[in-house]
Automatic annotation (TrEMBL):
<dbReference type="Pfam" id="PF07686">
    <property type="entry name" value="V-set"/>
</dbReference>
<dbReference type="InterPro" id="IPR051287">
    <property type="entry name" value="TCR_variable_region"/>
</dbReference>
<keyword id="KW-1064">Adaptive immunity</keyword>
<dbReference type="InterPro" id="IPR007110">
    <property type="entry name" value="Ig-like_dom"/>
</dbReference>
<keyword id="KW-0393">Immunoglobulin domain</keyword>
<feature type="signal peptide">
    <location>
        <begin position="1"/>
        <end position="21"/>
    </location>
</feature>
<protein>
    <recommendedName>
        <fullName>Ig-like domain-containing protein</fullName>
    </recommendedName>
</protein>
<keyword id="KW-1279">T cell receptor</keyword>
<dbReference type="InterPro" id="IPR036179">
    <property type="entry name" value="Ig-like_dom_sf"/>
</dbReference>
<dbReference type="InterPro" id="IPR013106">
    <property type="entry name" value="Ig_V-set"/>
</dbReference>
<dbReference type="InterPro" id="IPR003599">
    <property type="entry name" value="Ig_sub"/>
</dbReference>
<dbReference type="InterPro" id="IPR013783">
    <property type="entry name" value="Ig-like_fold"/>
</dbReference>
<keyword id="KW-0675">Receptor</keyword>
<dbReference type="GO" id="GO:0042101">
    <property type="term" value="C:T cell receptor complex"/>
</dbReference>
<keyword id="KW-0391">Immunity</keyword>
<feature type="domain" description="Ig-like">
    <location>
        <begin position="16"/>
        <end position="122"/>
    </location>
</feature>
<dbReference type="GO" id="GO:0002250">
    <property type="term" value="P:adaptive immune response"/>
</dbReference>
Length: 122
């Protein structure tokens, strides 16, 4: 069984000039799990925006970030989208202060740096 290394980093993806105190922070900076295991990554966030969107990406060494999914963070903004490669094993939930990314049946190619991002409308 191969070890899968997971590094989680928070990335604030706010519109230029945002000064409202919006923030996002990873709660699980680094972890390792075995192939076939499940993992949950968490980010806490704060925003005064009524319709924030939370994104997840992953990045392999020397490559551009790869989009995984996004979802609206509040019930009134329940839109979501998941990349085709991620539809079976990746899922996300969010509440008013936290978002999680669940990955089931880890595979060696899941070893990557994972980014959570907060987007708020201008």
């Amino acid at each position: 069984m191969e070890t899968c290394w997971i590094l989680s980093v928070a990335l604030a993806a706010l519109y230029p000039g945002a000064v409202r105190g919006d923030s996002i922070q990873s709660q699980d900076p680094e972890m390792s799990r075995g192939e076939g295991d499940a993992v949950t990554l968490r980010c806490s966030y704060s925003t005064s925006d009524q319709y924030p969107y939370l994104y997840w990406y992953r990045q392999y060494p020397n490559q551009a970030p790869q989009y995984i999914l996004y979802r609206g963070a509040r019930s009134s903004s329940s839109h979501s989208n998941t990349a085709s490669f991620a539809q079976k094993r990746f899922s996300s939930q969010a509440d008013d202060s936290t978002t999680v990314l669940n990955i089931t049946a880890l595979e060696p190619e899941d070893s990557a740096v994972y980014y959570c991002a907060l987007w708020v409308a201008p």
